[in-house]
Amino acid sequence: MILAGRTSQAIRLAGPLCYRAVRALGLPAINRRLNDAGLILCYHNVVANGSRTVGDPSLHMRRDRFEQQVRWLAAHYTVIGLPEFVDRVSTGKPLRAIAALTFDDAYAGVFEHAVPVLQAVGVPATVFVVATAGRRAGFWWDRREIVESADPALRRERLNTLRGDEAAIVPGAARQDLPPSHRPAEWDTLRAARRSGITIGAHTVTHRSLPTLSDAELEFEVVAGRTMIERATGARPDFFAYPYGLWDYRVRSRVRLAGYRAGLTLNAGLNRPFADPCSLRRLNVPAGISTAAFEAWTAGLTTSHS
Predict the structure, then answer these.
(1) Shortest CA distance to 231 belongs to which of 133, 126, 131?
(2) Mean pLDDT throughout 276-288?
């Protein structure tokens, strides 16, 4: 980050209250121009304007808000595909005002609402697919009882003790009534998206917390997931996203050994030339983020939490 340390620290401490002031002072624009570091954004789902509020509220962004962000990005950054972004990182090419877009979990809403926006603006994207995404019940974190019991201690228990494993977190749960946009996309939708230019990445088989798994389980999630996605879509994933953004050196080593070109975290921040391609940083974009905060975050002026 180019900003002086005290200024950056003040932004982190003040949080959302000062983002408008930061924007008015032009600090995001200054940081974009001076910082030779590239931005990878992580979205999850995009839903219709006026959709009823269901699921994890931080994950499901309205289409109009998403389109506003994409058009702003296209006007202020050179937005490139993840393959080119990783090439730039690996070869040390300049990354100033360079950005790439990614989506985790391959929600159906991404293909219904986000992809048309991306095509209209001319912006490429990568979608990370959970290999068992053919199930129609949706993801456990969107269940009503999970959303209503949101608590940091419970989240830690679900991701560490219960390993992010849906079967352990909601054992024997009945099918939930989620709208189609909040469910994983069908394989034929993914195949069509791939033909239209969307890059397909791997996001494991079951979306468990990888650092909590045995070596054999880790092998299954990293290697078998890739094979399953390739068979279903015809695309061999070259890029891997760590579920929940959780990883450690053992997990990173397994992803590298499997031959992925890059592994993407949810560690906030920007990526500099020659950064480790198997622990690239991404900006996790909350569905309700304000315009001022979005502009600051994309410039690297974020709080420590995404």
Answers:
(1) 131
(2) 97
